[in-house]
Amino acid sequence: MSKMFIFMLLLLATIDEGEGSVMADCTGYKHEPSLYLRVCCIISNLEQNVTIRGIGITRYILCPKVRPKSCPLDNRDCKSLFETGFDINGVYTVNPDGGTPFEVYCDMETDGGGWTVFQRRQNGSVDFYRYWTDYENGFGDLTGEFWLGLSKIHRLTKEGSNTLRVDLGDFEGNTAYASYSTFNVKAAVLQPALESPLP
């Protein structure tokens, strides 16, 4: 879905190469980076070689040969991505603390959008009777049933104010939810306490 968004953005936007310059990691700009450089940066992160012809432009637009390695994109969590303009439910890459990026499922529709989903259970296709390390690291498929992992949830919630929303539904279509205004996973939770599977 992200690739489709980028493609549409390129076709609909007026592309201006601008006068700014950019460092190889997209961090050092003399001026605000142009749409052209930001899009090239996103394409680079997708590891695509792309030649694009824009509407009303008679020349092909190529990204620089030395393409940036990371985009100047606020991708701390799903909320920041939503506020940047991403509004389609799906899997996104986030980096809440400058460490190693990881993928999450973002719900961009429920209750105003921008929710980072850290657990989904729908039909019992994934066994949740697991060992501690599974709960620490995560398991399942982000597009199906999964548990994101305590270490990732800790990275997402260790700073700032976080709201937890729990949505429940049954097989007859009845739904309910609860919202908690203060939520985080402390580092102490990451210490293994059990060697047997958790229920």
From TrEMBL:
Signal peptide interval = 1-20
Origin superkingdom: Eukaryota
GO cellular component annotations, sorted alphabetically? extracellular space
Q: Which InterPro entries match?
A: Fibrinogen-like_C, Fibrinogen_a/b/g_C_1, Fibrinogen_a/b/g_C_dom, Fibrinogen_C-term_domain
Its keywords, alphabetically, are:
Signal
Q: Would I find Signal among this entry's keywords? A: yes
Domain named Fibrinogen C-terminal: which ranges? 69-199
Give the protein's recorded name. Answer: Fibrinogen C-terminal domain-containing protein
* Species the sequence originates in: Amphimedon queenslandica
